[in-house]
Design goal:
Elements lengths: L21 E6 L2 E6 L10 H16 L5 E6 L10 H4 L4 H20 L4 E5 L2 E3 L1 H9 L2 E5 L3 E3 L13 H4 L1 H10 L3 E2 H7 L4 E3 L4 H13 L3 H17 L2 H15 L3 H12 L4
Parallel strand pairs: 2-3, 3-4, 4-6, 5-7, 6-9
Antiparallel strand pairs: 1-2, 7-8
Helix pairs in contact: 1-3, 3-4, 3-10
Length: 267
């Protein structure tokens, strides 16, 4: 599979369940959720999160599924929130999006089975968080690039300070600069970076390695790391950010920031 194809060559005919915004497939003990809005670079919406939650229900409840892979169709992993949707939402729907978003990230981080992110092309905003902060192992191609640009869009981003430390975290968040796959690996933001033409085989090899290992040992290892993060204040910080976003939801700052993003202009 070429980097430009991403996970887009997966057929909906091979899906476990049929959805509009994701493709849910399975190969032996490995399930894959592919974000499937390539025309919008797999930007995150309410319907997409609703479908993801339904697929996660299946992954968690089916004991024969031992590993989950997250991927993106087309030329990007995920562009983050879809501002075309968010600028037209009512306050209640904005809060509902925030709830779905928070719960999806929490579920991925606490899923009893290992989560591998397969990242090619851009992973921005929520796409960066899902792949690097919520997945257990992130494998990026050399042409992958990561950014967190919520500040530029007038809202509050997630805080990868537990992964990157304060200096690099604030550098990414306040500037919105992109970092490439190789730099992300050097910083410890991703597990490894591989050439584009080796991405699929690397993800497949790691997924099969995990699927063959003791399931309970991996589950409790994940629980232990989540416990340590919670002791350090991870969940409390995420809940605090939810409240911050509520304050900014109707602000002129956020609306102007998102419109400038959509119109590709400076504020």
């Amino acid at each position: 599979m070429s980097e430009n194809a991403g996970a887009g060559s997966i057929s909906k005919d091979d899906a476990i369940k049929h959805y509009e915004n994701i493709i849910f497939t399975r190969s032996d003990a490995v399930a894959t959720i592919t974000l499937n809005r390539p025309e919008r670079r797999n930007a995150l919406t309410i319907p997409l999160f609703e479908e993801m939650h339904d697929a996660l229900d299946t992954v968690e409840s089916d004991e024969s599924i031992r590993v989950l892979v997250l991927a993106g169709a087309g030329t990007a992993f995920c562009a983050g929130r879809d501002f075309k949707e968010s600028t037209g939402l009512t306050p209640d729907r904005i809060l509902y999006y925030g709830k779905l978003n928070f719960e999806a990230r929490d579920r991925l981080r606490k899923l009893s089975k290992p989560v591998i992110a397969r990242v090619h092309g851009p992973a921005s905003g929520g796409g960066c968080a899902i792949s690097t902060d919520c997945s257990d192992i992130c494998i990026a191609s050399s042409s992958a690039r990561f950014s967190i640009r919520e500040v530029q869009a007038g809202t509050v981003p997630g805080l990868p300070v537990f992964t990157l430390g304060r200096a690099r975290t604030l550098g990414m968040l306040l500037t919105g600069d992109w970092i490439g796959g190789e730099q992300a690996a050097q910083w410890g933001l991703v597990y490894k970076c591989v050439p584009d033409d080796q991405l699929d085989e690397t993800v497949k090899a790691v997924a099969e390695q995990l699927a063959a290992q003791p399931a309970m040992a991996m589950s409790y290892t994940k629980r232990a790391t989540s416990f340590l993060l919670d002791l350090a204040g991870y969940t409390q910080a995420e809940q605090y950010l939810v409240e911050c976003r509520k304050v900014l939801a109707d602000s002129k700052d956020r609306l102007e920031g998102q419109m400038s993003f959509l119109e590709k202009r400076r504020r």
